[in-house]
Write a structure and sequence with these properties.
Length: 279
């Protein structure tokens, strides 16, 4: 069987002046033939030989074979650049002669010509290959990663209440919870992330921060709680001894300074001569 959108091995059935016609290796459907244009036919191939090709539709909507490799195949996800935006949708560069259509109904945000977006490849109701930005169902849950592994992914959607949804390796389900989404990000951005949890369903919870940042968060929270206990003022600062800091907060002076730096940056505290006060 010859399948659209897939790379497969086919057999040369016959040659013509404008190319060769291919058929499936089993020859189950003798009437099913696909043209491989002459310009793409390797030298010295003859009837009966096999060749690996990709099947798609040409500009006249005819099934055709190519020896070129597209950037994504059926069911896969990849970052593709917008070449043009028209009345029917956007056209993407996927490495073939004919650009790939991303219909308006399959877009999840306003696109900008020249930028790359994460899309999946599917076959529409008219048996044509199209792109979609709705890639959730394309992603898998069988990643090889475990907690604290560092991974690369592409943000494909952001929910203000939940966080950012990420395609890890452009293959696997991942999410950056809202509390871990530090900074300003947008769909299409590629990021490096740390796996904080592998859920029972195989989906990955991710963070943009190293583990040390998590400890700084905890230390900062402890300092805030202590200041509140003391009525809004804590008699500790950079000049306090490690022993005094350890006694009051149960943390090292180094950890104290890092956490205080975070709180100062966030303007939650201010320094006074003899200590720290809530802002």
């Amino acid at each position: 069987m010859i399948s659209i959108g897939e790379i497969q091995k086919l057999k040369i059935k016959r040659s013509t002046s404008f190319g060769v016609y291919l058929t499936d290796l089993e020859g189950k459907n003798r009437n099913e033939e696909i043209l491989l244009p002459k310009r793409e036919v390797p030298k010295n191939l003859k009837a009966g030989d096999t060749i690996e090709v990709f099947i798609y539709r040409d500009s006249e909507d005819r099934l055709i074979a190519t020896t070129r490799r597209p950037k994504i195949t059926l069911g896969e996800v990849g970052l593709l650049r917008v070449k043009d935006i028209t009345k029917i949708g956007a056209f993407l560069d996927w490495g073939l002669e004919k650009d790939l259509l991303l219909p308006f109904k399959e877009q999840t945000m306003k696109l900008i010509k020249g930028k790359k977006y994460l899309v999946g490849l599917y076959v529409d109701k008219s048996d044509r290959l199209c792109a979609t930005m709705k890639i959730k169902d394309f992603l898998r849950t069988d990643s090889p990663y475990k907690e604290n592994d560092w991974v690369k992914g592409t943000i494909y959607s952001i929910n203000e209440d939940m966080g950012a949804f990420v395609a890890v390796d452009n293959k696997y389900h991942g999410m950056i919870p809202k509390k871990e989404l530090i900074g300003v990000y947008a769909p299409g951005e590629e990021v490096e992330l740390r796996v904080t949890k592998v859920r029972e369903d195989g989906r990955l919870e991710l963070s943009l921060r190293d583990k040390s940042y998590l400890q700084i968060d905890k230390d900062a929270e402890r300092i805030l709680e202590k200041i509140k206990e003391k009525g809004g003022f804590l008699p500790l600062n950079d000049n306090s001894s490690p022993e005094e800091i350890k006694k009051q907060l149960n943390m090292s002076k180094s950890s104290f300074k890092k956490a205080v730096g975070r709180l100062l940056k966030e303007r939650k505290i201010r320094f006074e001569k003899k200590g720290i006060r809530l802002s």
